Structures are given as C-alpha cells and as structure tokens.
Fold:
Amino acid sequence: MSSIHALRSIAMSALAGAILTTAASANPLSLLAPDRQTPDQRVVQPMFEPQRPATEQAARFKRQIVDYATHEAPGTIVIDTPNTYLYLVLGNGRALRYGIGVGREGFTWAGVQTVTRKTEWPDWTPPPEMLERQPYLPRFMAGGPGNPLGARAMYLGGTVYRIHGTNAPETIGGRVSSGCIRMVNEDVMDLYGRVNVGTKVVVLPIERHADMRAHAAR
Structure:
C-alpha cells in the first residue's frame, strides 16, 4: 500500500510541475509577484468617469448678441417667458440675450414694469404668501453666496418680483421660481451694470412664442 501511495504522490507532483511549466512558458511573467509585473500585465480597473456637473449650461443659454426684431427702444429689457430668455434691446435689430429661469406652472405673469431699485448681494425676506406656501423657509437671510437671490437684484415696480442671481445655476432654462426671473450670477452682474433705475421691463406671457423669438447670430 505504501508503494501505491508513493507512486500516486510522484504522479501528482509530476502533473503539477507540468502545469506550472506550461503556464510559465505561455506567460513567463505570470508567476512573478504583482509588483514585479509590467503594467500591461496587471489587472487594470476601469476608471470612474464623473458626470458633467449639472450646473453646466446648455450653449443656447450662454450670454450672446443675437438678431432681435422689436419695436421696443434700446435699453428695454424683454422677458421671453416661454423660451426662457431675457433680452436687453440694443437697437438696429440686435439684442443681448441671456438664459433665465422663470416662474413654475401657476406662477408666471406678464406685463410692463420698471426697475425701481438695484441691490448688490441682496438680503432675502420671503413675502408672506411664500411663507404660507413654504413655512419651512427662513424669515430672513443675509446677502451672500448662499443667498438664493445671488449676487445682484433688480426690483420690478411695487411687485414682489425681481430679476436676480441664483446659487442654483442648474435651474436656468427651467420653470422653477415663484415668479421671479433668475440669472446666473455672472449674467446678472453683467446686466446690472448695463441698466439703470427706471429701465422699462416687458414680460411676455407664457403663450407668446414666434412673433418675439430671436435667432442667434450666425
């Protein structure tokens, strides 16, 4: 019996040696420790590719000069609610166009107002009607980067509405506000420097489309 066991052990050892020899011949570096293998023989884990940030604006919402046919005088602001654009009329069939966020369903409005006040880094005091709908909101928030009114605000007439910046740039192009007009901070700062108190602001109704639509310059 001991002879049989010995023969089996010898056979198993020979078989294992043959397997290792074959593997080593096929891949001479396969038996090396991982830190001694060449890079192309190590297991490469797929790299995580992060998604593009949600705050990246679509190209059509970038600030740009466009063709714009209107009877409004140069210096007038036109809010194109359905297409989520704000136009600053330049004259001669041209306007400076900005992407904006507008009121969500049930909170859009239309009409003519004027800029009655301008503020840098405005404080925010939600109006009573907003607090009634959203009682969890703060009663007051000092101006600053975390303030939802952003870097600048232009107040419209005696209404609760404003053209203001935002700390949520991913909302540009959406219908998300309680009626205010949102702009990215860079754009609202640019507009703020171009308009004065008394500037006319025309807000188009949500139903109006083609007759006031602008076409980007080629």
Summary: The helical segments are 2-26, 128-133, 185-192. Residues 5 and 11 are 10 Å apart (CA to CA). The chain has a mean pLDDT of 77.
